[in-house]
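Tokens for P/Homo B domain-containing protein. Go.
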Amino acid sequence: MVDPMLEIAKCSKEPVPYQILITTTGPSNTCVNDFDGTSAACPLAAGIIALTLQANNALTWRDIQHIIVETSVTDGLNIEFFSNGAGKKVNSYVGFGLMNAENMVDAAASWKTVPPAISCYASSTVWKSNILSGLITDRVDLSACKVLYTEHVTIKVNFQSAYRGATIINLQSPNLTEKNVLSNRDNDIDANEITWTFMTVHFWGESAAGSWIISLFDVYDVNVVNLYGWEITVYGTVTDPLEGAPSESSAMATGLTVGIIVGSVVASLIVG
């Protein structure tokens, strides 16, 4: 399970032919000029968030996430972004782009607290194998889901493979946005059954109502993969989060008081 804050803007070495290095203090009164990676990105992100909170100390952790999504920039990134069903540009390496301190502070000054979140849940208990077609697909129906603006999506998958590291898992939303939630891992040679929870924010802003489809296959097309069941939980809001939380009377009228989840303060954020 990945902490929700970690997926908003990932910290990953950008696949470009250059890399910006940071000069900082080192051990034993030394200086280093090649500081990079997650170790460098996390304190930078924390500093940007601190400036944002200084501009508006009433911001919640979900407010911070929305501000990051709305204000991140893609200028200068020599990588391809795809647009999800809500028109948000996303990339698996750098999330929604690079955090922009000035943009975040400016947005925070007039930011309205986002509405309370609700959740929708569905599950499927089924045994399917890739022996015949090479591909396993299964779907669950969330047609009655009231989440119109998705934030986080988690899926808990029970599966087994003769070579687990070769198993690929993708998730498709009702808006036809497809996200790879598990890629191949050559050193993962385990063959035991496992139940694992994955989280993604790549469906951010989409309506959750409709069919969600999971697919599993073996990257080498030689190993047997078995799906024994899976469940999905979608978190988000009924009303547009960028318009702020509705009044108490409006919230009661639209049923926002049902299924509200309480967000916990997170410890860190990884930024690319």
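The chain has two domains: 4-109, 118-238.
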